[in-house]
Specification:
Arc Repressor Mutant, subunit A, alpha/beta, 43% helix, four-stranded antiparallel sheet, Rossmann fold, 12 strands
Length: 225
Protein backbone atom coordinates (compact mmCIF):
# COMPACT_ATOMS: atom_id res chain seq x y z
CA UNK A 1 0.00 0.00 0.00
CA UNK A 2 1.37 3.42 -1.01
CA UNK A 3 0.64 6.62 0.88
CA UNK A 4 1.56 10.19 -0.04
CA UNK A 5 2.01 12.68 2.82
CA UNK A 6 1.85 16.41 2.04
CA UNK A 7 3.02 18.19 5.18
CA UNK A 8 5.43 21.14 5.57
CA UNK A 9 6.16 20.60 9.28
CA UNK A 10 9.30 18.45 9.16
CA UNK A 11 8.84 16.99 12.65
CA UNK A 12 5.23 15.96 12.06
CA UNK A 13 6.02 14.64 8.58
CA UNK A 14 8.91 12.54 9.90
CA UNK A 15 6.80 11.27 12.81
CA UNK A 16 4.01 10.13 10.48
CA UNK A 17 6.19 8.70 7.72
CA UNK A 18 8.35 6.64 10.09
CA UNK A 19 5.30 5.25 11.86
CA UNK A 20 3.54 4.32 8.62
CA UNK A 21 6.71 2.73 7.24
CA UNK A 22 6.99 0.61 10.39
CA UNK A 23 3.34 -0.38 9.90
CA UNK A 24 4.23 -1.76 6.47
CA UNK A 25 3.25 1.10 4.16
CA UNK A 26 5.35 2.58 1.37
CA UNK A 27 5.49 6.32 2.02
CA UNK A 28 6.33 9.34 -0.13
CA UNK A 29 6.64 12.78 1.43
CA UNK A 30 6.30 16.27 -0.07
CA UNK A 31 6.40 19.64 1.70
CA UNK A 32 4.22 21.71 -0.66
CA UNK A 33 0.84 21.27 -2.30
CA UNK A 34 2.35 21.94 -5.72
CA UNK A 35 4.87 19.09 -5.30
CA UNK A 36 2.20 16.82 -3.85
CA UNK A 37 -0.18 17.52 -6.72
CA UNK A 38 2.46 16.75 -9.34
CA UNK A 39 3.34 13.45 -7.65
CA UNK A 40 -0.29 12.41 -7.07
CA UNK A 41 -1.09 12.99 -10.74
CA UNK A 42 1.81 10.86 -11.96
CA UNK A 43 1.93 7.97 -9.47
CA UNK A 44 -0.62 5.59 -8.00
CA UNK A 45 -1.44 6.05 -4.29
CA UNK A 46 -3.87 4.13 -2.11
CA UNK A 47 -4.30 7.13 0.21
CA UNK A 48 -3.20 10.75 0.71
CA UNK A 49 -2.57 12.54 4.00
CA UNK A 50 -2.80 16.30 3.46
CA UNK A 51 -2.18 19.20 5.83
CA UNK A 52 -4.43 22.21 5.23
CA UNK A 53 -1.93 24.95 6.11
CA UNK A 54 0.72 24.71 3.40
CA UNK A 55 2.89 27.40 1.81
CA UNK A 56 1.52 28.67 -1.51
CA UNK A 57 -1.40 26.49 -2.57
CA UNK A 58 -3.14 25.20 0.55
CA UNK A 59 -4.35 21.67 1.24
CA UNK A 60 -7.98 22.39 0.34
CA UNK A 61 -6.92 23.70 -3.08
CA UNK A 62 -4.81 20.59 -3.60
CA UNK A 63 -7.75 18.33 -2.78
CA UNK A 64 -10.14 20.32 -4.98
CA UNK A 65 -7.69 20.11 -7.87
CA UNK A 66 -7.39 16.33 -7.57
CA UNK A 67 -11.13 15.78 -7.23
CA UNK A 68 -11.79 18.11 -10.16
CA UNK A 69 -9.53 15.95 -12.33
CA UNK A 70 -11.32 12.77 -11.29
CA UNK A 71 -8.85 11.33 -8.76
CA UNK A 72 -10.84 9.41 -6.15
CA UNK A 73 -8.25 8.00 -3.75
CA UNK A 74 -9.20 8.48 -0.06
CA UNK A 75 -7.77 11.64 1.53
CA UNK A 76 -7.17 12.20 5.24
CA UNK A 77 -6.94 15.89 6.18
CA UNK A 78 -4.64 17.06 8.98
CA UNK A 79 -5.19 20.46 10.57
CA UNK A 80 -4.65 22.49 13.72
CA UNK A 81 -8.04 24.10 13.01
CA UNK A 82 -10.58 22.43 15.26
CA UNK A 83 -13.84 24.30 14.61
CA UNK A 84 -16.86 22.49 13.21
CA UNK A 85 -16.92 24.89 10.25
CA UNK A 86 -13.33 24.04 9.33
CA UNK A 87 -14.04 20.31 9.51
CA UNK A 88 -17.19 20.65 7.40
CA UNK A 89 -15.32 22.75 4.84
CA UNK A 90 -12.57 20.16 4.52
CA UNK A 91 -14.99 17.27 4.07
CA UNK A 92 -17.22 19.17 1.65
CA UNK A 93 -14.27 20.04 -0.56
CA UNK A 94 -13.24 16.43 -1.06
CA UNK A 95 -11.64 15.14 2.13
CA UNK A 96 -12.76 11.73 3.41
CA UNK A 97 -11.72 12.21 7.04
CA UNK A 98 -10.41 15.06 9.21
CA UNK A 99 -7.90 14.67 12.04
CA UNK A 100 -7.01 17.63 14.27
CA UNK A 101 -3.56 18.34 15.67
CA UNK A 102 -2.15 17.31 18.06
CA UNK A 103 -2.97 13.64 17.53
CA UNK A 104 -1.62 10.25 18.53
CA UNK A 105 -0.09 8.02 15.89
CA UNK A 106 -2.39 5.20 17.00
CA UNK A 107 -5.44 7.27 16.05
CA UNK A 108 -3.94 8.33 12.73
CA UNK A 109 -3.09 4.72 11.85
CA UNK A 110 -6.60 3.57 12.80
CA UNK A 111 -8.14 6.21 10.54
CA UNK A 112 -5.80 5.31 7.66
CA UNK A 113 -6.69 1.64 7.97
CA UNK A 114 -10.41 2.42 8.17
CA UNK A 115 -10.29 4.54 5.00
CA UNK A 116 -8.43 1.82 3.11
CA UNK A 117 -10.89 -0.85 4.31
CA UNK A 118 -13.81 1.30 3.22
CA UNK A 119 -12.30 1.82 -0.23
CA UNK A 120 -11.56 -1.90 -0.56
CA UNK A 121 -15.17 -2.81 0.26
CA UNK A 122 -16.47 -0.36 -2.34
CA UNK A 123 -14.14 -1.85 -4.95
CA UNK A 124 -15.15 -5.40 -4.09
CA UNK A 125 -18.84 -4.53 -4.41
CA UNK A 126 -18.28 -3.21 -7.95
CA UNK A 127 -18.13 -6.60 -9.64
CA UNK A 128 -19.21 -5.39 -13.08
CA UNK A 129 -17.65 -2.50 -14.96
CA UNK A 130 -18.96 -0.91 -18.15
CA UNK A 131 -17.65 1.77 -20.50
CA UNK A 132 -19.75 2.26 -23.61
CA UNK A 133 -20.42 -1.20 -25.09
CA UNK A 134 -17.44 -2.71 -23.25
CA UNK A 135 -18.17 -4.73 -20.10
CA UNK A 136 -15.93 -6.53 -17.61
CA UNK A 137 -17.13 -8.99 -14.96
CA UNK A 138 -14.73 -9.49 -12.06
CA UNK A 139 -16.50 -12.58 -10.72
CA UNK A 140 -16.65 -14.57 -13.95
CA UNK A 141 -13.44 -12.96 -15.25
CA UNK A 142 -15.08 -12.28 -18.61
CA UNK A 143 -14.95 -9.35 -21.02
CA UNK A 144 -17.45 -8.51 -23.75
CA UNK A 145 -17.76 -5.78 -26.32
CA UNK A 146 -21.08 -5.28 -28.08
CA UNK A 147 -22.12 -8.68 -26.71
CA UNK A 148 -19.10 -10.50 -28.15
CA UNK A 149 -16.77 -12.27 -25.71
CA UNK A 150 -13.11 -11.27 -25.74
CA UNK A 151 -10.40 -13.56 -24.37
CA UNK A 152 -7.73 -11.76 -22.35
CA UNK A 153 -4.57 -12.93 -20.65
CA UNK A 154 -4.32 -12.25 -16.88
CA UNK A 155 -2.17 -9.13 -17.18
CA UNK A 156 -4.32 -7.78 -20.02
CA UNK A 157 -7.37 -8.28 -17.81
CA UNK A 158 -5.68 -6.45 -14.91
CA UNK A 159 -4.76 -3.53 -17.17
CA UNK A 160 -8.25 -3.30 -18.63
CA UNK A 161 -9.82 -3.35 -15.16
CA UNK A 162 -7.50 -0.53 -14.08
CA UNK A 163 -8.36 1.52 -17.18
CA UNK A 164 -12.09 0.95 -16.72
CA UNK A 165 -12.08 1.80 -13.02
CA UNK A 166 -10.42 5.08 -14.00
CA UNK A 167 -12.38 5.68 -17.21
CA UNK A 168 -11.95 9.25 -18.42
CA UNK A 169 -8.79 9.78 -16.35
CA UNK A 170 -5.35 9.76 -17.93
CA UNK A 171 -3.08 7.08 -16.44
CA UNK A 172 0.66 7.57 -16.79
CA UNK A 173 3.05 4.74 -17.60
CA UNK A 174 4.38 5.01 -14.05
CA UNK A 175 0.89 4.49 -12.61
CA UNK A 176 0.26 1.51 -14.88
CA UNK A 177 3.61 -0.09 -14.01
CA UNK A 178 2.95 0.27 -10.29
CA UNK A 179 -0.58 -1.12 -10.52
CA UNK A 180 -0.16 -3.90 -13.10
CA UNK A 181 3.41 -5.04 -12.41
CA UNK A 182 3.76 -3.69 -8.85
CA UNK A 183 7.14 -2.08 -9.42
CA UNK A 184 8.58 1.29 -10.40
CA UNK A 185 8.61 2.52 -13.98
CA UNK A 186 11.81 2.10 -15.97
CA UNK A 187 11.97 4.70 -18.78
CA UNK A 188 14.14 2.30 -20.80
CA UNK A 189 11.41 -0.34 -21.07
CA UNK A 190 8.44 -0.43 -23.45
CA UNK A 191 6.44 -3.17 -21.72
CA UNK A 192 3.55 -0.79 -20.99
CA UNK A 193 3.31 0.18 -24.67
CA UNK A 194 3.47 -3.48 -25.71
CA UNK A 195 0.68 -4.48 -23.32
CA UNK A 196 -1.48 -1.52 -24.39
CA UNK A 197 -0.96 -2.53 -28.03
CA UNK A 198 -2.03 -6.11 -27.32
CA UNK A 199 -5.11 -4.91 -25.47
CA UNK A 200 -6.03 -2.52 -28.29
CA UNK A 201 -5.81 -5.35 -30.81
CA UNK A 202 -8.43 -7.25 -28.84
CA UNK A 203 -10.93 -4.58 -27.79
CA UNK A 204 -10.57 -1.81 -30.41
CA UNK A 205 -9.33 -3.12 -33.77
CA UNK A 206 -12.63 -4.52 -35.02
CA UNK A 207 -14.77 -1.64 -33.81
CA UNK A 208 -15.47 1.80 -35.24
CA UNK A 209 -15.33 3.55 -31.86
CA UNK A 210 -11.85 3.32 -30.34
CA UNK A 211 -11.85 3.31 -26.54
CA UNK A 212 -8.14 3.34 -25.62
CA UNK A 213 -6.50 6.63 -26.47
CA UNK A 214 -2.88 7.76 -26.25
CA UNK A 215 -2.17 11.11 -24.62
CA UNK A 216 1.25 11.85 -26.05
CA UNK A 217 3.91 12.51 -23.47
CA UNK A 218 1.54 11.63 -20.63
CA UNK A 219 -0.04 8.18 -20.84
CA UNK A 220 -3.30 6.47 -21.77
CA UNK A 221 -7.00 6.93 -21.15
CA UNK A 222 -10.04 4.73 -21.77
CA UNK A 223 -13.16 6.69 -22.69
CA UNK A 224 -16.03 7.04 -25.14
CA UNK A 225 -15.81 10.28 -27.15
Amino acid sequence: MKILIVEDDCKIASFISKGLAQAGFTVDLRESAEEGLALAENSFYDLLIVDIMLPGMDGIELIESLRGKGYNMPILILSARQSVNDKVRGLRHGGDDYLTKPFSFAELLARVQALIRRTSRLSENSSKLAVGDLTLDLYSHTVERAGKKIELRPREFTLLEYLMRNAGNVLTKTMIMEKVWNYDFDPQTNIVDVLISRLRNKIDNNYKVKLIKTIRGVGYVLKVD
